[in-house]
Amino acid sequence: MEKTIIQQFNELKEKHPTAILLFRCGDFYVTYEDDAQICANVLGITLTKRTSDGTRTAGFPYHALDTYLPKLVRYVNQPESIMKRIAICDQLEDPQTQKLVKRGSNELTKQGGLTMKLFHDVGINEPCRDIKVNGRKIMANVWGGQTEVTLTTWSEIRRLGFKKRERAFGNLNDGTPALYFQAWDEQNNNHWFLTTEKLEELED
Fold first, then answer.
1. Pick from 17, 18, 47: which is nearest to 31 by CA?
2. pLDDT tens per residue across span 31-63
3. Exposed/middle/buried for 99, CB within 10 Å: 0-12, 13-18, 19+?
4. Which residues pair with 87 in a beta bridge?
5. Is it the case that residue 143 has pLDDT exceeding 70?
6. CB 65 within 8 A of CB 29
7. pLDDT value at position 166?
8. What's the topology of domain 5-119?
9. How far apart are CA 104 and CA 133, in angstroms?
10. CA distance 168 to 190
11. Which of 33, 42, 94, 162 holds its CA 20 to 30 A away from the CA of 123?
12. Hey, which bits of the chain come out as E strands?
């Protein structure tokens, strides 16, 4: 019997109950059941039910990830949130050749044929009044799209109030490993700061 995407979701959700799972389905990221309810409430998107089995679902276009992901990050960082992580599950196979494709991303946590990228504690919850740091502006891949970021040092990033744990792992466009830190200003604009220093070399 062919495994369905809902079975794939349920198996992974059982192993990672505190992660919001974003499944890449064609041109959309889709969530299911309780994750869908949370995303509908937090993001203000429509909650629907599948006609085949009544499963709750909510989604958004893949190119809007940079808009919606910071809102989910802030949600999971709230002390009262039962969800603590976000997992982006991307397609690894051509959906035209497979009924159920494998999904995955960089920074992998492997569970059977499905791989995930987990994000948690990657931003400062409160707006930063002063987000000016010494560094240079570059373009880097952030949440699947090219975004202008500030490449700087850990001492500059630390001055904004960041801790070591408030980071995500990534790479510069030339493949150099980097640590990503995200902050918001008072106009709710998000800003990214990167350093190529190694995590173990950073002071708390």
1. 47
2. 999 999 999 999 999 999 988 888 999 999 988
3. exposed
4. 21, 118
5. no
6. yes
7. 73
8. MutS, DNA mismatch repair protein, domain I (3.40.1170)
9. 34
10. 15
11. 33
12. 19-25, 28-32, 48-49, 56-61, 85-91, 103-104, 108-111, 114-119, 136-142, 145-151, 168-171, 177-184, 190-195
**Lowest-confidence segment of 121-125, 146-150, 171-175, 191-195 by average pLDDT:** 121-125
Is the torsion defined by CA of 168, 183, 89, 17 positive or negative?
positive
3-class SS of residue 113: coil
Cβ(35)–Cβ(53) under 8 Å? no
**Count of C-beta atoms within a 10 Å radius of residue 22:** 28
Between the alpha carbon of residue 74 and those of residues 12, 35, 81, 145, 156, the distances in Å are: 23, 15, 10, 20, 22
Q: What is the separation, in whole angstroms, between the first and last Cα of the chain?
A: 51
Nearest of 27, 33, 35 to residue 50 by alpha carbon: 33
Length of the chain: 204
| Three-class DSSP category at 18 | coil
User: What is d(CA 109, CA 119) in angstroms, rounded to the nearest whole number?
Assistant: 11
Spatial separation of the C-alpha atoms in residues 147 and 41, rounded to whole Å? 27
Question: Domain residue spans in the chain?
Answer: 5-119, 136-201
3-state secondary structure of 17: coil
